[in-house]
Amino acid sequence: MVSTGMRRYRVRTTTQASLVGDLGKTVLDPLALFGRTAPLRLEIGFGHGEFISQMAAAHPDEDFIGVEYDRLRVTKTAHKCNLVGVNNVRLYSGEAHTFVRDRLPSAAFQRAYVLFPDPWPKPSHRRRRLMNRAFLLDLSHAIAPKGRLIIASDTHNYAFQALSNLTTLTGLWRNCYPNGYRFEIPTRFPTVFERHKKSEGCTICYLMMERTDVPAPARAPWPIVANLGDSTVGQI
Ligand SMILES: C[S@@+](CC[C@H](N)C(=O)[O-])C[C@H]1O[C@@H](n2cnc3c(N)ncnc32)[C@H](O)[C@@H]1O
């Protein structure tokens, strides 16, 4: 069901549409998209767009690409970007794994954020979690050496699962946090979910991983490994 507040985003204005990318299948060309070569950041599942719009305003010398499943949220985020006057953002409506695998150029991103991915808390639903091993392997292709992947989740077993899966991608990632995770770090631009979860008293778990310069191995065949993430839950 679409809430009354979100209905206004059913139709995109021209200025909102100017920030929304095509639904094609070709690999993105950042130079063609932004008309310049600049450091690139990626946000996956940007939701209502607080983070990507404010980050883009705070970093005018960098370019931002975001992907989000929910079409209305994409339009709402474009609206937010218009409000803060940024043009260094391109938003894509689609499924994140397919987008990462098919459309992201290799070793192109200096930062990638996955903030509060859907937790699918029921054990029988965990196979739906995005950050399975196949997704993280595909993401490893897109992140530049020394680029960083930042993950936040209030569902600690999901953060653990993501770290566990990243660890199985031998040699590709270095953990920036000596203790594995950090909790309750200050965040410049809290997302809707971050605020919501903190107001409920949840402890937020953060991961920061740095891509090494080891080339990512061949991609796993799709869709056979789509649910591999589940196989690592509980292991260490
Ligand atoms: C829990 S919300 C968090 C949104 C935002 N990052 C925040 O912290 O407020 C998860 C978001 O990821 C999107 N999402 C979930 N699975 C996705 C997928 N496979 N591809 C693209 N977006 C996805 C959802 O539509 C939703 O907006």
Question: What does this 3D model show about the protein?
Answer:
This protein has 236 residues and is α/β, with parallel strands linked by helices. The chain has one domain: Rossmann fold. The protein contains nine helices and eight strands. Strands 1, 2, 3, 4, 5, 6, 7 and 8 form an eight-stranded mixed β-sheet that branches. α7 links the parallel β4 and β5. α4 packs parallel to α5 (71-84). The N and C termini lie far apart (40 Å). Mean pLDDT is 91; it is low at 224-236. The structure holds S-adenosylmethionine. Residues 45-47, 67-70, 73, 95-96, 115-118, 130, 191-194 line the site of S-adenosylmethionine. Residues 45-47, 67-70, 73, 95-96, 115-118, 130, 191-194 line the site of S-adenosylmethionine (SAM).
Short structural summary:
The chain has 236 residues and is of the alpha/beta class.
Name the bound molecules: S-adenosylmethionine
The CATH topology is given as Rossmann fold
| Helix percent band | 25-40%
Quick check: average pLDDT?
91
Strand content: 15-25%
Bulk shape: globular
Entry keywords:
single chain, about 240 residues, alpha/beta, Rossmann fold, eight-stranded mixed beta sheet, 9 helices, globular, disordered C terminus, binds S-adenosylmethionine
Q: Strands, helices and their partners?
A:
Layout: H1 4-7, H2 14-17, H3 30-34, E1 40-44, H4 50-58, E2 63-68, H5 71-84, E3 89-93, H6 96-103, E4 109-115, H7 133-142, E5 143-153, H8 156-168, E6 173-175, E7 182-183, H9 192-199, E8 205-211
Helix pairs in contact: 4-5
The chain binds S-adenosylmethionine (SAM).
